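== Sequence and structure of one protein ==
=== Format: two labelled lines per protein ===
==== Data for this protein ====
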Amino acid sequence: MQVNVEQILAWNPDMIVIHEAAVGVNPSAIYDNPQFKQLAAVKNKKVYKLPEFALMSHMASLTWYWYGALAYPDKFSTHNIRDVIAEGYKFSYNIALTDEEINQVFRLDANKDSQYYVEKFSKK
């Protein structure tokens, strides 16, 4: 399905989630695009890039949890999501992720300007 700028403007989404296959496209590309400045998602800083685990079938449930934490921040706790990610990588790939690597998995840098993101997914 092809979607053009006019259609996105007509929809005026409350939240935009950028697929991880959109290589090189981060929230800043949406925030900095003057065509999108009137979108509710842009005004409210609710543009997010999917984390790296989003397409891994064995971690798909975490993608929904991640989305819930952003869409409904008052209803979802993320207190242990970093531990769950670390355990998943250890179990699946026998890789012990460092805190910095977990930050990369969550794309903290790409999502740093988006509402709730750093406070929800950085190490407490």
In short: The two ends are 40 Å apart (CA to CA). The chain has a mean pLDDT of 90. The longest strand covers residues 16-18.
